[in-house]
Amino acid sequence: MKKTLTFIAFLTWLQLAHAQNMVVSSYYVAADKRDSWIELLVTSDNLDIREWLVGDYDVNGGGHLSNYASIKFKSINFWNHLRRGTIILIYCRSTNSSNVPYSIDTSKADGFISVHAQFSAVFDDCPANSDPKLDLQSLAEMITIKYDIPIHSLGHGTNHSNWLMVANPKVINNQAGSSNKLIQVCPGATLAGYDNIIEDTVKTNMTSTGLSLGLPNFRSGNLGSNQAFWNQLREPTWTTPTLTISTNTTHTVDTLRWNVSLDPYSTDLTQGYLILKSNTGIFSSSPVDGTTYTTGTSIGSATIIATLTTSQLSSFVHSHAAECGKIYYRVYAYRYSQDETNGNSYHETRGRAYNQTSFAQGNSTAQNPIPILYHY
Predict the structure, then answer these.
(1) What does 72-141 look like in DSSP terms, one character per residue?
(2) Which of these three, 202, 234, 266, is where a domain ends?
(3) Which of 128, 90, 97 is nearest to 30 (CA)?
(4) Lowest mean pLDDT among 2-6, 238-242, 258-262, 264-268
(5) Do 57 and 92 lie in a common domain?
(6) Residue 92 · residue 38 · CB < 8 Å
(7) Distance from first CA to last CA of the chain, Å, rounded?
(8) Across residues 341-360, what is the average pLDDT?
């Protein structure tokens, strides 16, 4: 009895340790399997998915997910220290139905990874020719992430035998599928939206239009909920930011100091700060997610004076011409580089992400005007 309780406690610990650290966001079942893909979303910070599995099996069939039906994230540093909000796109074959090889993007700097299931540099158990893995089925399917125990599953179909046997968290679309269909979690406004023990079509969607490849899920009547959740994941955390400013006697140099933002793995230089100044104290706009800005340009009525490319730097010296009035400053924390695939301002959930609601702000001391004496 004691051994049984110990084993149950161990399984409970495993579930708590890995539960929903990464979820299946969507998958596309194409008529030609070379056009099928799976999209995963990292939901916790500094995540290590080395030796995790992602696999598929027919929901109508019997048996559990096993290595022959899955690929394994290779035990290399690339799959360690993943940032919250990172999107992992996995094509099920190395080429599409036109025999064009898929582009590989293994830079984590912008929070987007694009690979294929036969890419042995990052996956184990991924034969290039024979016995291909991730053989997605149109009528019924389930994609499962697991590491010792299932971490998250997304499926579709009307026979739920396998889905019922797999541990939570999981969600299923209760419809028989067909070729060229996208199955997605939607609305997906919170992490809880990726888990549902009762199969339905409320938390999921099956569609042949509006394919959201590498982007948030949407459907008619709910266009923005999943995007808001992705933005929340991708933006850095900055708890109670403070900014102190000291000014030299000639009022030509302001030294800004702040408490650093939360960064669980600062050595990868994924996070930094954007510093703005205003002579009026009016900041009419905030930085927009997905856009990387250039020093000297404006955001609304404010001017960008610096971009600092490390989260651990907590001060900045701003030299300027002497002014009688105050200078107002804002410091925004950001995460990720510019979108390396599509360029700047492609989409709010790709590329750089800013914490637009929790930022440091303050102002310099004003210089007293020099009295002018008139002699008559």
Answers:
(1) EE-SSGGGSSBPTT-EEEEESSSB-TT-PBPPPB---TTSEEEEETT-TTTEES--SSSS-S----SSSE
(2) 234
(3) 97
(4) 2-6
(5) yes
(6) yes
(7) 105
(8) 98
Amino acid sitting at position 172: I
The b-or-e profile of 239-263 (16+ CB within 10 A means b, else e) is eebebebebeeebeebebebebbeb
- pTM, entire model: 0.90
Residue 145 lies in a domain: yes
Q: Is 222 exposed, middle or buried (0-12, 13-18, 19+ CB in 10 A)?
A: middle
User: In the structure encoding, which two tokens stand for residue 204, read together?
Assistant: 């999921």
User: Is the confidence at residue 131, as pLDDT, over 90?
Assistant: no
Name residue 167's amino acid: A
Q: Compute the distance between CA of residue 249 and CA of residue 365 in angstroms, rounded to an integer.
A: 10
Q: At residue 233, what is the residue type?
A: L
CA separation for the pair 278, 256 (Å, rounded): 14
pLDDT per position as a tens digit, 54-74: 998 766 654 444 444 689 999
Task: Tell me the CATH number at 249.
Answer: 2.60.40
CA distance 101 to 142: 26
Cα–Cα distance for residue pair 364/147, rounded to 1 Å: 53
Q: Are residues 247 and 169 in the same domain?
A: no
Reported for 306-309, long-range contacts at CB under 8 A and 24+ positions apart, including other chains, are 306/273, 306/274, 306/275, 307/272, 307/273, 307/274, 307/275, 308/272, 308/273, 308/274, 308/275, 309/269, 309/272
Helices (H), the chain: 2-18, 161-165, 225-234
Which token pair is 83?
């940032």
Q: Is the dihedral of CA 193, 198, 202, 208 positive or negative?
A: positive
At residue 250, what is the residue type?
A: T
On the CB side of 363, how many CA atoms lie within 13 Å of its CA? 14
In this structure, are 117 and 223 located in the same domain?
yes
